[in-house]
Amino acid sequence: MARRSALLFLAILLLTACASKGTPLPLATPDRVPAPSTPSATEIPVVSPAAPTPEVSATPEPTLVFPTPLPPVITLEPTATAERSPVLSSAVIQILKPGPLSRVLTPIRLRGYVIPGYRSLIRVELYGEDGRLIFRKLTPFYADIFKWAYFEFDIPFETSAAAELARLQVSTDDGKGNTVALGAVHLLLQSEGFEAINPPGSLDERCILLTPLAGTTASGGILTVAGEYRLFNAQPLIVELVTEDGAIVASQWFTVPDGANGNPITFSTDLTYSVDMPTSARLVVRQFDERINGNMYLFSQPVTLNP
Per CATH, the architecture of 206-307 is what? Predict the structure, then answer.
């Protein structure tokens, strides 16, 4: 009996040892998991992150430089008529086509720029080599004050000869009918054949007055004049004072030196005038045509003459 009890006790011990070593314990369910304890602020160490040390590259990377963008380029389209725009030094009257000594057939296709005169009018005339008037037209061309107006129209002509020298001129007048500006070209009129249109050459003003300025008031009966002039031909250069009623109150002629034809020259003079009261006038610089009677060029600007 005692032996059986001992064996039974040993069997119980063996079963208990096996259960502790080989049998897994049951897993805890979520409601049985204990909540983790949160450490207090004093228990959490504050760690300052160390600044990263930049790595030095053996070959530095290129720096991209972007240029400042340029404004867009605008291309201006030509108008239906104008061929070029005058600049500040351009002549008051510019004949673009036909150029000097062009050979033309009827009709002459005239194109140019002009600062219109009184009532925006310009005068176009064609003279034959014998001085006869072949064509004349007085027509308005509108533009802002002291601005160029573009003109273009056809000039018909008739000639009995196979060819004839002619002068084509464009001029403007003031309110009294006095010529303010005049520009001209020589042409060869042909009854048949082929045209040969020459370029216009320089379109700068032939006369540049250094003194007096436009609108100057002169006193004491003397007006000092000085300037530069690009010669048209070998004819004398004429400088004069012309009143509104057309009276010439002072005049000075300059002889062109030999070999100076077509070259610029300087001129200066004291014009002596006599008036009884303040008088509106124009200082005129002009040169004759050496082939056909009349002026080849005329430039003027307003002045006031005091006694």
Answer: Sandwich (2.60)
